[in-house]
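Bumping with the actual sequence this time:
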Amino acid sequence: MQKYKCVFCGHIYDPAIGDEKNGFPAGTAFEDLPDNWKCPGCGAEKEYFNPVD
């Protein structure tokens, strides 16, 4: 699954890890996160994440 990086703080959302702290277990694809999900690093909105290789 594709990883995504926050353009502001550099946090990488890795679906293999998920975002357990906010209720999204490992295996949750970025596309499956709700639109109101925010970056755990800086609070940026989902739209400010770009795919990374």
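The tokens above came from a reply further down the thread. The chain has a mean pLDDT of 97.
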